[in-house]
Amino acid sequence: MLLEDLQVVLKVAEFRNITAAATNLDMRTATASAALKRVEKALGAELFIRTTRQLRLSSAGERYIPQCEQALLMLDQARQNMKDDLEIIDGELRIALSSDLGRNLVIPWLDEFMQSYPSVRLKTNISDSNIDFYRDSVDIALRYGSPNDANLYGFKICNIPGILCATQEYLDKNGTPVHPHDLASHNGLFYQLYDIIHDVWEFSQQGAEFKVKMSGNRASNDGDLVKRWCVSGKGLAVKSCIDMSAELISGKVVNVMPEFKPRATELWLVCPSRQSITPAVRLLRNTFREKTTAILNQLIEKEILDNSVLS
């Protein structure tokens, strides 16, 4: 009895329909039907009762299907354990990334990673919305902020200071703020998530906290677009220093009011279960830590950040 045939049987049991199971497995209905018949012939029992509209489990199917499912899970775990023991870097990486960080930094890092490990396949989900690991079919997510679900597993990559930034041209035209109170007359470029516009900016200086309700004429749920607006001189934006690193280092934008620090965050690599932490994921974690540390060191060398960010 082939494992592939058993996988077809489980999909038929899940969908109660051979055609739907075949579509999910990307095979012809006839191929799925033949696989089901082979399994039933090998067992000497029918697993499903055929009706005009759908299939339902027979008494034999009700006993056999759960045991079959458990056996395949055990085989899959054994295969994964062997790969872990041998440190085999292969398989499919299904990773969720935020828009700005993902498009502009992480995708090139993943390209390098796949050049080093050609047996790895990649699927990316790029969005600034929160990921549901079960709904969105991803195995890992690189996200700002520590995971707030105790059922998730995560690796902290680094601390990420926020930066208030703008082009020099914008500042020359509209004036350079030196205190959060000066921001009221400036145009804010806002990040929007779930219809909530983040237009209240928070800053700290030597223990003192400042909150500013900004006004502005642009908002987006795509962090990459907010960055593009900022780089084109449309206003001020509070962004991750990692997201803005290339623009800060090249001088396309400048760090505004550096004495007043926007709220910092953390970058985490998050997994839904221990089984998701494969050798490839652990290697990616190390890669992300190396890449982000190198960027933070560049920002320190350019005196855009101070050394405290690495502590």
What does it look like?
With 311 residues, the protein is an alpha+beta fold. The chain has 3 domains: 3-86, Arc Repressor Mutant, subunit A; 92-148 and 269-310, D-Maltodextrin-Binding Protein, domain 2, CATH 3.40.190.10; 162-263, Periplasmic binding protein-like II (D-Maltodextrin-Binding Protein, domain 2, 3-Layer(aba) Sandwich), CATH 3.40.190.10. The protein has helices spanning 3-15, 18-24, 29-43, 59-86, 99-116, 168-174, 223-231, 245-250, 279-301, and strands at residues 48-50, 55-57, 91-97, 120-126, 140-144, 153-160, 162-166, 187-193, 196-197, 200-205, 208-213, 215-220, 237-240, 254-255, 261-262, 265-271. It has a 5-stranded mixed beta sheet with strand order 4-3-5-16-6, with helices on one face. Strand 3 (91-97), helix 5 and strand 4 (120-126) form a beta-alpha-beta unit. The longest helix is centred in the first third of the chain and has 28 residues, at 59-86.
SSE arrangement:
Elements: H1 3-15, H2 18-24, H3 29-43, E1 48-50, E2 55-57, H4 59-86, E3 91-97, H5 99-116, E4 120-126, E5 140-144, E6 153-160, E7 162-166, H6 168-174, E8 187-193, E9 196-197, E10 200-205, E11 208-213, E12 215-220, H7 223-231, E13 237-240, H8 245-250, E14 254-255, E15 261-262, E16 265-271, H9 279-301
Parallel strand pairs: 3-4, 3-5, 8-12
Antiparallel strand pairs: 1-2, 5-16, 6-16, 7-13, 7-14, 8-9, 10-11, 10-15
Helix pairs in contact: 1-2, 1-3, 1-4, 2-3, 5-7, 5-9
Largest sheet: 5 strands, mixed
Radius of gyration: 26 Å
Nearest-integer average pLDDT? 89
What is the name of the CATH architecture of the largest domain?
Answer: 3-Layer(aba) Sandwich
Number of domains: 3
Question: At the third CATH level, what is the topology name of the largest domain?
Answer: D-Maltodextrin-Binding Protein, domain 2
Strand runs, count: 16
The CATH fourth-level homologous superfamily of the largest domain: Periplasmic binding protein-like II
Tell me the series of helices and strands, N- to C-terminal: HHHEEHEHEEEEHEEEEEHEHEEEH
In whole angstroms, the N-to-C terminal distance is 57 Å
Q: Which stretches are low in confidence, meaning pLDDT under 50 for 5 or more residues running?
A: none
The global form is elongated
**Structural class category:** alpha+beta
- Hey, roughly how much beta strand do the residues contain? 25-35%
